[in-house]
Structure formats: C-alpha cells, structure tokens
Design brief:
CATH class: Alpha Beta
Shape: globular
CATH topology: TIM Barrel
CATH superfamily: Aldolase class I
Number of strands: 10
CATH architecture: Alpha-Beta Barrel
Number of helices: 12
Number of domains: 1
Length: 282
C-alpha cells in the first residue's frame, strides 16, 4: 500500500503547487458531451490549448481525443494533463429516455500512454435519474483497482444537479447538505482528489472540506459569471479550506483567458485579494 501511495504521489506532485499545495485545473472537456452551447469559446481546441499553456495553470482537463494537442507541445514547462474518463448524455433541458454514463475502455492504460497526472470520473446525482447515479458508482468501482494498480490518482467529480427542466444539466444545486453527502460518498468510494460543487453559502464550505476527511477538494466553477463574482467566490472557498479550483467556462468564455487565469493563479497560490486579482486581468 505504501508503494501504491508513493506512485500516486509522484503524479500528485505534478498537479499541486510545491509551496501553496493547491491546484488550478482548467477544464476544457465540454465538447465530449454533444450538447449545444458547450463549444462556445473552444471551437478550435488547438488554439485554446496554446492560449492556456501560455497562461500556465497547473493543469488542463481534456478528453482522450484532445489530449494530444497538449502533449504534442514541446518543452518541459506546461500544465499537467487531467484526463476525462467518462461521457454522459444528461446535460440538456430534458433528460433523454435512455440515459448513460459510459467509461473509456482500458482507462488507465490510455491515461498512462497520454502521460496524464490524474484521471477524472463523474458521480452524478440527478433528480429523476437514479439509474445514472448507479452507473457512475459502477464506473468508479471498476476504476478504483486500476487506479491503485497503475499509481494513477483518481479525481471523482460529485455533481448535484438542479432539475434539468429548470436549469438544464450541469447547473449547481448549491445545497450544502446534498453536496456534503455526495462528496462523502466519493471519498468512501476511494477518491484521491474531489472536484465538487460550490455551496450557495460559501461560508459553510468548510463542512464539505471536513467531510472529505483529508482528501483535497477542488471546487468547480459552474456557469459563466462576472469577474468580481468568480473572484469573490474563489477567495471565500480558499479561505474555507478548498485545495484549489477547476474552472472551465469562466476561463474559456472570458474575453481575456490569459488575464483571468493570471488572476486566479494569484489567488490560489499567493492568496491575492479580489482588488489585486482584478488588476491582473487587464
């Protein structure tokens, strides 16, 4: 077991900053899900990835089909790869009659071949779709032994959806109790890292962190909001003990992706306040 932990720690060292011990992962895996609107800002992934690499976040979250655009770039100093491992069809305004959350075949071998530092797998809780939750649990149970065998950290993404009819999939529920319990299930299933929803009341987020029982919690960004809102929320979440952030649309749909990345990196790694971070965007 000590050897397995050491093997995972080698890759975790590529994700987490050596001083702050935090991580900023930019998620650009949205095109995986065949959902109108998800391609806004990422139409040409070759250019998107070049822009993000220049902005220098700690990691970029990509699919198996897009990872090559990161890993083909020369040089030692580029973000680590977080590999998305599962694809689902549950993001629209209406849930389809037949729902799925499917896992890549030979998941960990693909991750090793792509030189990933981590893999990411969903744990959905969707009103009216308990079978998708069950499928996610099965995916994680299959993935866990592979993660241990190959020494590959497994990031579990517990997502509590609002009803699809109200907000479409992928919109944060925000309920502290529901988020906390789903995060705890992810930890109990063997997560090495958690990517979790923010709570509506940011001041309560320490309870989510406590429920993770020492597993680092990275907070996802959700839908696009103003600069001041995302920075204020980020500052509050970090103060509550979050180990970092995984933001997608608030970076890739921003008019200045490099500037907002620079601002968020200053908050995550240097504890910059909101006024200081805002100045870094322009």
């Amino acid at each position: 077991m000590d050897t397995l932990f050491s093997m995972k720690s080698y890759r975790l060292n590529r994700l987490f900053h050596p001083v702050s011990r935090r991580c900023f992962d930019v998620a650009v895996d949205h095109g995986f899900f065949n959902q109108p609107g998800f391609l806004s800002g990422i139409e040409d992934m070759r250019e998107v990835i070049k822009t993000l690499v220049a902005a220098a976040p700690d990691a970029i979250q990509l699919t198996t089909g897009m990872a090559r655009h990161l890993q083909d770039l020369p040089g030692r100093f580029k973000p680590s790869l977080v590999l998305r491992t599962d694809v689902a069809n549950i993001y629209g305004k209406e849930l389809p009659d037949s729902r799925f959350s499917l896992m890549l075949e030979e998941t960990m071998l693909q991750a090793v071949r792509l030189d990933a530092a981590c893999v990411c797998v969903n744990l959905f809780q969707i009103p009216g779709a308990p079978e998708v939750h069950a499928e996610c649990v099965r995916n994680i149970l299959r993935l866990k032994p592979q993660a241990d065998y190959y020494g590959m950290p497994m990031m579990i993404e517990p997502l509590v959806f609002q009803p699809n009819s109200q907000a479409g999939g992928y919109m944060v529920n925000g309920d502290e109790t529901t988020i906390t319990h789903l995060v705890r299930q992810a930890v109990e299933l063997g997560a090495d890292i958690i990517k979790a929803d923010p709570t509506d009341d940011v001041s309560a987020y320490h309870r989510v962190v406590t429920a993770a029982s020492g597993i680092p919690v990275l907070v996802r960004g959700g839908g696009r909001v103003s600069d001041e809102e995302i920075l204020t929320r980020t500052q509050g979440l970090l103060a509550q003990g979050a180990s970092g952030i995984v933001y997608g649309r608030n970076v890739i749909q921003h008019p200045n992706p490099t500037g907002i990345t620079r601002a968020l990196m200053a908050m995550v790694h240097e504890n910059a306040d909101v006024p200081t971070a805002l100045k870094l965007i322009s």
